[in-house]
Design a protein that fits this description.
Residues 57-306 form the G-protein coupled receptors family 1 profile domain. Belongs to the G-protein coupled receptor 1 family. One of its GO terms (molecular function) is C-C chemokine receptor activity. Keywords: Cell membrane, Chemotaxis, Disulfide bond, G-protein coupled receptor, Glycoprotein, Membrane, Phosphoprotein, Receptor, Transducer, Transmembrane, Transmembrane helix. It comes from Erinaceus europaeus. It is a single chain. This protein is an all-alpha fold. It has a single domain, classed as Up-down Bundle (Rhopdopsin 7-helix transmembrane proteins). It is built from twelve helices and two strands. The protein has helices at 40-67, 74-90, 93-102, 107-140, 151-175, 197-232, 236-241, 243-270, 278-297, 301-309, 311-323, 329-334, and strands at residues 176-179, 187-190. A two-stranded antiparallel sheet has the order 1-2. β1 and β2 (187-190) form a beta hairpin. The longest helix has 36 residues, at 197-232. It is globular. It starts with 39 loop residues before the first helix and ends in an 18-residue tail after the last helix.
């Protein structure tokens, strides 16, 4: 583990989110380290529950989509990749949970790996949802089959999303290290050396712009016009079928938007756009701790949305259970087979 020269370390400029590192060191600022007043064992239990639900739920989603090859749509392929991203992130949750209790005791390589999983999960999630919004926009507003019927295009788009997510995650991963600061438990933290305010602004502003703000604007534009078209044309069936997609987008924003808004506030404070005070620094640190827990919770919620809102997902799951003898065929036959989501393109209906 590399030694950090704390005497020359400008902690105010090198503060990083989501690490539980005290916001200053004693010889550089009068602020005393404070953290969110949440029992660490409560957080541990939350992370374990999220891990179990995410593991089981996303595996079921992947299984249902893969088993519905004949009726698999473009949107389904995006949702499949979304489930894979959540599943990969779920594998890191036991590590994050342990670090809440014992501190970061896993060393630098694992610090970089789980940080990579977290960043890729977030960026791939919002980019995939942006692609779904474009697909729905083209299918409903423009009634086009240009993209929706060319499956190989979708595969390349998904590969590009994974690649871009990795690129946006590189800065955090490069500088993450494991070390033990004074008066604190071991942490997984970004070490960028001395006087690195400009670098930290670049590391935050670029990913937040290309990996959050732009995809969010795309979603708002596409879904705004899509909703207007649905209501103007009185397409009741399409409107009901879009509930799953809208629910997925809404839950993603509810889970990750607070974290990113707080992160923007912290970035503005570090850039001295808003006044930096000891109290404000502590409040932002607490808000980042709390909203990070909310963001982690997201990885287990999509399967619950599909189960409660997605009729075809429930039918697909029951069909798999019936094929393996876990439920009777009679019970399956009683379930009315739900209709596909209506669309101008036959290949844009969604399995979920």
């Amino acid at each position: 583990m590399d030694e950090i020269n704390w005497e020359n370390y400008d902690f105010g400029d090198n503060y990083s989110y989501s690490t539980d590192l005290p916001s200053i060191i004693p010889d550089s600022s009068p602020c005393l380290p404070e953290s969110l007043n949440i029992n660490k064992y409560v957080v541990l239990v939350i992370y374990v529950l999220v891990f179990v639900l995410s593991l089981l739920g996303n595996l079921l989603v992947i299984l249902v989509i893969l088993s519905s090859r004949a009726s698999r749509s473009v949107t389904d392929i995006y949702l499949l990749n979304l489930a894979i991203a959540d599943l990969l992130f779920a594998f890191s949750l036991p590590i994050w949970a342990t670090s809440k209790v014992k501190g970061w005791v896993f060393g630098t390589p694992l610090c970089k790996l789980v940080s990579l999983l977290k960043e890729v999960n977030f960026y791939s999630g919002i980019l995939l949802l942006a692609c779904i919004s474009v697909d729905r926009y083209l299918a409903i507003v423009h009634a086009t089959r240009t993209l929706t019927q060319k499956r190989h295009w979708v595969k390349f788009i998904c590969l590009a999303i994974w690649g871009l997510s990795l690129v946006l995650s590189v800065p955090v991963v490069l500088f993450r290290k494991a070390f033990h600061p004074p008066y604190s438990s071991p942490v997984c933290y970004e070490d960028m050396g001395v006087n690195t305010t400009k670098w930290r602004m670049v590391m935050r502003v670029l990913p937040q712009t290309f990996g959050f703000l732009l995809p969010l604007l795309v979603m708002l534009f596409c879904y705004g016009l899509t909703l207007r078209t649905l209501f103007e044309a009185h397409m009741g069936q399409k409107h009901r079928a879009m509930r799953v997609i809208f629910a997925v987008v809404l839950v993603f924003l509810l889970c990750w938007l607070p974290y990113n808004l707080v992160l923007v506030s912290d970035t503005l404070m570090r850039a001295h756009v808003i006044e930096e005070t000891c109290t404000r620094r502590i409040h932002i640190g607490r808000a980042l701790d709390a909203t990070e827990i909310l963001g982690f919770l997201h990885s287990c919620l999509n399967p619950l949305i599909y189960a409660f809102i997605g009729q075809k997902f429930r039918h697909g799951l029951l069909r798999i259970l019936a094929n393996h003898g876990l439920i009777s065929k009679e019970f399956l036959s009683k379930e009315a087979r739900p209709s596909f989501i209506g669309s101008s393109s036959g290949n844009t209906s969604t399995t979920l």
